[in-house]
Amino acid sequence: MVPIPAGAFTMGNPRPDGYPADGEGPTHPVRLRAVLMDRTTVTNRAFGAFVDATGFVTESERFGWSFVFGGLLPDDFADTRAVASAPWWRQVYGADWRHPEGPQSSIEDRLEHPVVQVSWHDASAYAAWAGKRLPTEAEWEHAARGGLDGVPYPWGAEREPGGEHRMNVFQGRFPGENTAADGYLGTAPADAFAPNGFGLYQMTGNVWEWCADWFDPGYYGVSPEVDPRGPEGGTNRVQRGGSYLCHESYCFRYRVDARNSSTPDSAAGNVGFRCVRDA
Question: Is the model's pTM score more than 0.85?
Answer without folding.
Answer: yes
